Each structure stands twice: as structure tokens, then as C-alpha cells.
Amino acid sequence: MLNKYFRVIVGVMVLLSVVLTFYVNQNWMWFTVFIGVNLIQSAFTKWCLLETILMKIGVKKQKKSPV
Questions:
Q1: Buried b vs exposed e over 10-35: b needs ≥16 C-beta within 10 Å?
Q2: Rg (Cα) of the chain, in Å, rounded?
Q3: What does residue 24 show for φ and ψ, rounded to 5 degrees?
Q4: Measured distance CA(43)–CA(64) in Å, rounded
Q5: pLDDT tens across 23-56, in order?
Q6: What's the distance, CA 34 to chain centroid?
Q7: Torsions phi, psi for 57 (to 5 deg)
Q8: Quick one: which of 20, 46, 48, 66 is 20 to 30 A from 31 by CA?
Q9: Using an 8 Å Cβ cutoff, are 14 and 32 in contact?
Q10: Could you tell me if 20 and 28 are in contact, meaning their C-beta atoms sit under 8 angstroms apart?
């Protein structure tokens, strides 16, 4: 379940930042850059702030399937 929430939240944040960049100010593109950099660093460090927050509010990790 954690993976599903994570993907939805990150997707919404990227789309929101693109809309804000287009309609409000071009500096909102830095928010998109921040999201991308955070995704890259989490791939190497195996740590992500959003995942930590979701787990603290009670979202459970998926159990690994035996396949």
C-alpha cells in the first residue's frame, strides 16, 4: 500500500508543479527539480522523507510475495 500512496503523491506533486509553473511563475519548476533529485538520491540511499512520513501516519508496507 505504501508504494501506491507514494506514487500517487509524487505524481500529483509533479503535475501540480508543472501547472503552477505554467500559470503562476516559472520558478515553480524548481519544485519539479527538487522532486526529481529526491527520487534519484532515494534510489542510492534507500531513504525517502515521504516514505518516512507515510509510515509514521500508519501506511503499511506491502508484504513481499513468495514468487
A1: beebeeebeebbeeeeeebeebbeeb
A2: 14
A3: -110, -65
A4: 19
A5: 999 999 999 999 999 999 999 999 999 999 999 9
A6: 10
A7: -90, 5
A8: 46
A9: yes
A10: yes
Q: Residue 25 is which amino acid? A: N
SS3 51: helix
The tens digit of pLDDT for each residue in 7-16 reads 999 999 999 9
Cell of 11: 505524481
What pLDDT does 18 receive?
95
Cβ-based neighbour number of residue 50 at 10 Å? 17
User: What is the CA 19 to chain-centroid distance, rounded?
Assistant: 17
Residue tagged 538520491 (cell numbers)? 41
Distance CA 17, CA 61 (A): 27
CA dihedral sign, ordered 50, 8, 32, 45:
positive
Quick one: cell of 56?
Answer: 509514521
